[in-house]
Structure formats: C-alpha cells, structure tokens
From TrEMBL, chains A, B:
Stated family: Belongs to the DSD1 family.
Record bears the keyword Transit peptide: no
Occurrences of domain D-serine dehydratase-like (ranges): 288-389
GO molecular function: lyase activity
InterPro entries: Ala_racemase_N, D-amino_acid_metab_enzyme, D-ser_dehydrat-like_dom, D-ser_dehydrat-like_sf, PLP-binding_barrel
Record's keyword annotation contains Lyase: yes
Name this polypeptide is given: Amino acid deaminase
SUPFAM superfamilies: PLP-binding barrel
Keywords: Lyase
Source species: Halomonas salipaludis
Length: 402, 402
C-alpha cells in the first residue's frame, strides 16, 4: 500500500518504467532539456554581468532550487513569506521575496528566517508598509533588507515615479530596522502597442531610479541591487542593465522562473522573440515539462477522452498532444498524434478531436504526452514530478512545496 | 519554525485568530454553512429514496469525507485510482470511481484496495477496457464491480445507445473477474436549447437502460445500482429515479460534490434553478468556502492589489470581494467592499478596481474575504483549509490529499 501523505497521483508503483509502472496521469520532467536550460540561463546571466535569482514560485521544487544554485544562481526569488520559509527549510539561504511583505503573521515567518540565518530581501512600495515593517522588525531586534518597487502607471504594484521612489527611500532611512538595498521592478506588466520599446524604456527608468537612490546616499546595503525580469523579456532587461555599466557599484539580478522547464505555449512564443532579437543566442530554451495521460474512452468516431484535466495541467491555453506510446511498449515506438487537438478540458478529462484516418490506430490505454502553457500552473497541480531519462526511466521524484 | 512538509501557506502561526495569527492568503471553510449543507443534501437524497455518494474529488479532504459519511452518505465518489487510494487509506471503505479504470498501474492500485477490504465500483464503456480489466483482475484472483456508462452523442465518455449498453453487458458477463453492478451516467455534459428537458430525457434513458440490463439478467451484483448527478441538475436526476419506482430492486445513487461548500458563482446560479423548480426545498445550500487575502499595494487611485492569485483560488470566473476586515481587528467590524471588482488575476496577485469614494477608507494590510467559482479548483490550491467558527477562530485544519 502506498504512502498515505497524499493521493500520490503519478507515482511509480514498484518500477521505474514510465509507460508501465507509473500511475497516470503523471507530470514528467525530461533530464536533458532541464540540464540544458539550467546551464543556458546561467550562461546568459553571466554573459550580461548579472546575477541570477530564478523565480522559485514556478516550481516550488527544492530539488530544482538546488540544481539552480549549483549551476551558479545567486539566490532564489519567491513570491510569499510561506514560500520563503519552504525554500529556506529545504536549503536555500538567499531569498529574494519579489513582493510586498504584509500581515504580521507573514512578518513573523520572515523574522524567524532572519533569526535562523537566512539572507532575505523583500519589496516595499508604500509608506504605510514601510512603517509597519519598521515597527515590527524593530520590536524583534532584527533588520530587514528592502528594495523599493518602481512600477508603471496602470500596472501592478510599485511607486509610479521617481519622486515617489525617493520619498520612500527617505521614509526607509528613518526606520532603523530597515536597510534599503536597492530597486526592484517587474516588466511583465508593461503593455502597449510596442511592448519591446516600452520594456526597454522601463528598464532604463529602473536604472535611473536606482542611480538616483544611490546618489542620494539612501542605499544602505553594502551591495546595492537592481532587479527585474520575468520569463519573457529578460533579454531586454539584461541588456539595459549591462549597457548601464553598473558593474562597479550596483549589482544586477535577473529573476526568470519559467526557463527551468520552459513551455509549449506563451514562453515558447516569447523565446522566439528573444532569439529573433538576439540571433547569437543559439539553441534556445527547450520544453522539459510534459504531462502523460491515457486514453480512457473512444466513444464515437473522431473523439477520444484522456485522463487529463484541469487538476493535472495548466489550462490558460488548451494542452497540446505531443506524442503517443502504447502502454507497456517501448519508448522508441512513438505513435503519431498528427492532427490531434484538445477541444475541451474538464476537471479530470480532456476531449481530443481526432482526424478521421486515425481511428483504427488508437487504443484504449494509449499513453499521450501533453505540453502546456504556462509551467507555473502545471507544477502546482502536483506534489511530485518525475524526472525521467531519454528512455523514460524514472530517475528521481521531485517533491513540490506548494 | 514551521513544519517542513510543504510551504504551509495559510497556517496559523501560534494562535487561532484568523485576522491576526494566520499567514494569509488562507482558504477558509465556515462551520455553520458547512454543517447546513451536509445535512441539507443528505435530507434531499433521503427524501428521494436515493443513496448519497458525494463526489470526493471536489475537496479531497478526508475530514470532509468523514463528515459526509457520518451525515449518512452511502460512500464517496472519486475520479481516479489514486484518489480512491487516498480516500481508503484515510477511512472511506466504499468507493465509487465514476470513471474508467485504465492502465495496469492504476488497476494495481484498485487491486490492492480490494485485497485490503475496500468496496470499489468503477465504470466501463468499451469492450477493450472490459477485456483488459477482466484479464488483469482474473490474474490476481480478484473480482471487480463495474457499472456501464451511458453517455450522450457529442458528450464525454459512455456508450451512445442501449444496444451498446446491452452488448457491453454481455461482454462483462463472459469475464469471470468482473461483476456487473449497474448503470452509470453523468448529466453534466448534456447541453442544448432546453437543457432541463434534455437532462430529464437523459435521466429516463438511464432508467430504461438499467431496467433493460436487469431484465436481461446481466446485472450480477446483489444490489444493482443506477447512479448519476453532478452538482447542478441533481434534482432532476433524483426526481426521475424516484418517479421510476426502482426502490424494490435497483438502488439510486446521487453524486453531487460541490454542495459541501457550495460556491459564489456557477453553482449558486445552478442552485437558483433548483429552488425555482422545487420551491418546497427551503433555504438552499449556502456558500461556505472563502479565501482571505490582504491588500498589499494601493499604487494609484482606484486600484488595489491583493495577495491573491491563480495559485490560491479558482479562476474560471474572477473572484468576488465579499467583506473586509482590519488586520488584527474584530470579526464584528466588517468593512465595506461595495463597488469593489476584481479585474485581473495573476499567479499571486489580484487587481481590484475600487470605487472613487473608498480611497480614504482602505489600508495596506486590510483583509478581504473572496468568494469563487467553482470550488473544486479552489480546494486543489491548498494542502490545508481552515475550518472557522462564526468568530473566525480556527477550529480545525482540514488536510487535502491532491
């Protein structure tokens, strides 16, 4: 009988063959593209003189955090205090919480982490939050490093202009428990007719604001930081930070998250943009995450139902059938899914439209590998994902901490 | 320092006051409406002479399964073999897997459950699956109870007509390891200009098919079953099964899942339909599930950002702000959210449009209760949900087993 900790969907039942021993559906990460992506993005950051703090919210898998740090990452970015705790408890020492820290229960978590030796940064964008943090951490006799967020009009969080940034810098300056460590931004909410130009402009506004804070003597941390970048426009951010020649004084930190397993939708599209802008970046990121499920019903011509639902895979876009295998068969015998199209996703079922000529070839139990977009919303469906080699043998079970 | 099993978002940090001690965001179930819903649906089933096997996939929370069984449920419905295992390991003995059982790794799970004493039913709709199940369970010296699924043209799984049902009944009859136990359907995929009539028609088709199987002597189980019903049209199914006067011979089993916490969207709408059709069912289901999150940023007039995202709450429809409290304040001091509207949900952030006049009243850290639709996709974001009393004190942490 299995472990009782969870429903353990997608775990090997006494063997390591994905096409035979694993209870499907299961989420799978392919070893080779994972290793490629880890090295690729670290090389990219290094080449731009930037540190890499991959966004950990994507996977919340400590085994991946360890691989990212081993590949050279400066730290791990996280979105919440609870995520920071999970990462620290599992071995990540430097935590960039790229978000406002609100609520005393959450401040308590971060306070505990500081006492336990974590190196934590978080983000502020209001005087009210600065005062609350200042009061809380002073009462505990702790000092918290903060970054001021510069956002954009109509965007998400963040100060809306440089005056607000400087005023907030001064508010931090009078809170003994807070250490201003630099500037933070997120270009993923920049929109407009020409998003590429808008992102470039925003990157340079970040540079100017960071310089202004620094020149006003408001940055107390020994190593001032400037940090931005999601998974779509990281090349533009990295270029601006490199071209600003901050090296001597302000350290640039990039925070892409989805690169680790890439995807088959939004980010594959975004990566095409990166490679079009930067043709020298050969052999870009490769999709590494798939969900394997089985055909459970062939109820009428042209329709197959698979054991795959919103409980198993991201549903921002409908999943893509990629390949097919026979249950218990060899991973070398790849069957076609040409013309297959997912038309609907329910909680536990996928509806697949089949081209006419395939009906004879498909069987109940056939195993289909699906790709998805975006990866964050596939990871969070799973308590473990299976790392597999090129023979689809399970090498490791990667636990997630959502 | 907290337990290291997961990121433990939404857990009390050394106290039981939701508005002070709990790391937000947190998913909350209110005690009183939960108890009301549990009793309401059991009473509904009893009044129709039907058994209740609530769909457990909704919550995957064994503490709720136990309450459902204690309230009188006949068993728990589940969607996958892994879910059946999780439910059985945590105390549910009768498991209705309302889905096809495919894949030998999944058959192995069900085989283990049978050996451990579980009473399992699963669903078949193809000769290929019947033969595979027959071979597998014969080899293990076990007998598996199966229900034939009758679907609809253009629907999901299931036979498409009575001839297919009877042919499949005969295919089961020649598999010594399989015990035909009755008929299964799911009216949630019935559509059309007049869905109410279409669901009634479908319910009567199920009745006729079950009777035909029984009259042909194909149902081997001592207690033949007929089962259908999701959370939207259960009243029509229950009526048809009652009016068919099956009592003497075939037992009707209803399988709504979402009723347990109801919702603030799709199912609230559906419940209005039920109450319009059946005005004697006074005081219908009540929404019991909410997600509490905090205002983290007030970056420009008319815009608030809350610590609530697709990682925390169902996103089929945008969440509804319901009430607001001051952090650390009293649960009696409810602040207005009139005119508040969530306009966008990212992974970890909600964008809230505020009416003009409220800007003075709102503070960073304010706690907002959000409602959502549908509940299955909120439950699966959480490893535990907090059961709270009317004073918002945490009474119990309900673990989920996704």
């Amino acid at each position: 009988m299995a472990r009782a900790g969870c429903c353990d969907k997608g775990t090997p039942e006494g063997g390591d063959a994905l096409l035979m021993d694993v209870s499907l559906p299961a989420a799978v990460i392919h070893e080779a593209p994972l290793a490629h992506n880890l090295a690729w993005m670290q090389r990219f950051a290094d080449a731009h003189g930037a540190r890499l703090a991959p966004h950990g919210k994507t996977s919340m898998a400590p085994a991946l955090f360890r691989r990212q740090v081993a590949a050279g990452a400066w730290g791990i970015t996280l979105a919440t205090a609870a995520q920071c705790r999970a990462a620290f408890v599992h071995g990540t020492r430097r935590l960039l919480m790229a978000n406002q820290l609100v609520g005393e229960a959450n401040m308590a978590i971060i306070g505990d982490l500081l006492e336990a030796g974590a190196d934590v940064y978080c983000v502020v964008d209001s005087g009210a939050n600065v005062r609350h943090l200042g009061r809380y951490f002073a009462a505990r006799g702790l000092r918290l490093k903060v970054l001021i967020e510069l956002g954009i009009e109509g965007g998400r969080c963040g100060c809306r202009d440089h005056d607000q940034v400087l005023a907030l810098g001064e508010a931090i300056d009078v809170e003994p428990a807070l250490v201003l460590a630099g500037l933070e931004g997120y270009e993923g909410v920049v929109h407009g007719d020409d998003p590429e130009s808008a992102v470039r402009d925003y990157a340079w506004q970040l540079v100017e604001a960071a310089r202004a804070l620094d020149q006003d003597g408001l940055i107390e941390a020994e190593t001032p930081l400037i940090t931005a970048s999601g998974s779509a426009w990281y090349d533009l951010i990295a270029e601006a930070f490199r071209d600003a020649r901050l090296d001597g004084r302000i350290v640039a930190v990039l925070r892409p998250g989805c690169y680790v397993v890439h995807d088959h939708g939004l980010y594959r599209e975004a990566q095409r943009g990166v490679l079009a802008r930067r043709p020298e970046l050969q052999q870009g990121l490769e999709p590494a995450l798939e969900v394997f499920a089985q055909i459970q019903s062939l109820p009428e011509p042209g329709l197959a139902i698979a054991t795959l639902g919103k409980r198993d895979i991201a549903a921002d876009q409908l999943p893509l059938p990629l390949r097919r295998y026979r249950e218990g068969g060899s991973p070398d015998q790849v069957l076609s899914v040409e013309g297959w199209r997912v038309t609907k996703l329910m909680d536990q079922h996928a509806f697949i439209h089949l081209p006419d000529e395939i009906d004879d070839d498909i069987r109940i139990g056939d195993i289909v590998a699906f790709g998805a977009s975006h990866p964050c919303l596939t990871f969070d469906k799973w308590r473990q994902l299976l790392l597999v080699d090129e023979r689809l043998r399970v090498r490791e079970s990667l636990v997630t901490l959502f």
